Amino acid sequence: MGRRRSFGSRLLAGLALASMSICLVLLHQLSQDGKAAIGGATTNEAIERRQRHSHRYLLMAAAGSGSIPAAASGLESKQRQPIAAAVAKERARNQVENNNQSSMVDRRLPRLLIIGVRKGGTRALLEMLNLHRDIAMVPVEVHFFDKFDNYQRGLDWYRSQMPLSSDAQLTVEKSPSYYVTPEVPERVYAMNPHVQLVLIVRDPVTRLLSDFAQIEASRAAQNLPNRRFQDVALLPNGEVNTQNRALHVSLYAKFLSRWLHVFPRRQLHIVDGDRLIQDPWPELQKVERFLGLDHLIRRDQFYFNATKGFYCLTGTPADVSNGNDNLTLATAEEHHNHHYHHKCLAGSKGRRHPQVPDEVISVLRQFFAPHNRKFFAMVGQDFDWPEQ
Ligand code: A3P
C-alpha cells in the first residue's frame, strides 16, 4: 500500500514537473517574440519574412516544375518529379496559411522588362538583380513581343512562361531584341502601360566588337570561315559600312525615339554597361531606387574573379542558385567557404574581342559621335564615350 502511494505521488510529481517545463518553454518563446518586436520586427513583419523565404524556395523549386525548360533549370528529370510535388504541396500550404491574403504564389506577367541592348550586359544585369528578394526573374529569353509566332500565342501563353512569384515580387523578363524591333513598344504598352523598362548600353564601338565576336563564334560553329572585323565594319574605301546590321544596333538614339513615343521617360531607366563591368554594385543600387525596392543587394555579393576577368556572384545557395545554365560554378579553390556559392556568367559572356588597328576604332568612334550626342540629349545622361 505504502509502495503504491509512493508510486502514485512520484507519478503526480513527474506530471507537475512536465507541465512546469512546458510553461517555461512557452514563457521563453513569448520573451523571444517580445525581443523581436523590440528589435523592430513586428509579428506581421516576421510572418511576411517567413512567407517571402518560402516563396524564394518555391521559385527555386519551380525551376524544376516543368514550366521552365529542363535545360535551363539545370535539373535532371528524375529530380523534377518530387520537386513538382513539393511545389504543389507548398503552394497549397501557403494558400491556407495566407488565408486568402494578398501574397498568393502565382505566375505573373512581368512588371519589369530588360529591353536591351544586345551585348550590353543584359544577362549580367538580370542575374545580379535576381539577388534581390523581391525580384523573380525569367531565366530564359522568351521573345514574346518580338517574335510574331510567340506574340500570336497570347498573354496567357506568355504568363505560363513566367516563374512562380509572390505579389511582393516583381517578375523580370529580358529579351535584348525587344529594343530594336519596331512593333515591340506598342505591344508592351498594350500588355501594361505602367510596365517599367530597363535598357543597358555600353560604348557603341565596344558593343559592336562584342557583337562581332559573338557572330564569328556562331559562324565558326557552322564551319564558316573567319573574317576580319575591319572587313565587315568598313567598306573597301575605308568608310563605315552603314549596311552592317550589327552596326545599326549601336545606333541607340534611332530605336529610343520609338520607345519614348509610347512610354514616358520616367518609366525607362538606363544602366551604364561599362560601369556594370567595372563595379556592378552602384549600378544595381540605381536600379533598386528606380524600381522603388529596398536596398537589399549588397556589395559583398560580388567579387572580382581574376580567372574570368569579370565580377562574379557570391551568396547563399538561395541567392545564387536559380536553375540557370548561364551561370557556372567558379573553380573549386574559390569555394573558400562551404556555406557560400560562387557563380560566374557562362563562357559566352566575356569573350575575347578581335584585335583591331587604332585607325579603324577611330573611324568608328567618329561615326558614332553625333548619334551618341543625340542619345545623351534624349535621355538626359552623358555616358562620355570616346569620340576619337
Ligand atoms: P563580351 O562577351 O563582349 O565581353 P549580353 O548579356 O547582353 O549578351 O552582354 C554580354 C556582355 O556582358 C559581355 O560582353 C560582357 O562584357 C558583359 N558583362 C557585364 N558584366 C559581366 C559579368 N559580370 N560577367 C561576364 N560578362 C559581363
Short description:
The protein is an alpha/beta fold. Helices cover 49% and strands 12% of the residues. The protein has helices at residues 2-38, 43-62, 70-73, 77-97, 122-129, 148-152, 155-160, 184-191, 204-221, 229-233, 245-249, 252-262, 273-278, 280-291, 317-320, 358-379; strands at 106-107, 112-116, 135-137, 164-165, 170-174, 196-201, 268-272, 302-305, 310-315, 327-329, 341-345.
The overall pLDDT, averaged over residues, is: 78
SS summary, helix count? 16
Distance between the first and last residues' Cα: 108 Å
Give the spatial strand order of the biggest sheet.
Answer: 3-5-2-6-7
| Major beta-sheet overview | 5 strands, parallel
Radius of gyration: 27 Å
What portion of the residues fall into strands of 2 or more residues?
5-15%
- Which stretches are poorly predicted, pLDDT < 50 over at least 5 residues? 1-5, 19-94, 322-338
Helix amount, in percent?
40-55%
What gross morphology would you assign? globular
- Class based on secondary structure composition and strand pairing: alpha/beta
Q: Quick one: how many beta strands?
A: 11
Q: What is the H/E string?
A: HHHHEEHEHHEEHEHHHHEHHEEHEEH
Bound molecules: adenosine-3'-5'-diphosphate
Write the layout of secondary structure elements.
Elements: H1 2-38, H2 43-62, H3 70-73, H4 77-97, E1 106-107, E2 112-116, H5 122-129, E3 135-137, H6 148-152, H7 155-160, E4 164-165, E5 170-174, H8 184-191, E6 196-201, H9 204-221, H10 229-233, H11 245-249, H12 252-262, E7 268-272, H13 273-278, H14 280-291, E8 302-305, E9 310-315, H15 317-320, E10 327-329, E11 341-345, H16 358-379
Helix pairs in contact: 2-4, 12-16
This protein binds adenosine-3'-5'-diphosphate (A3P).
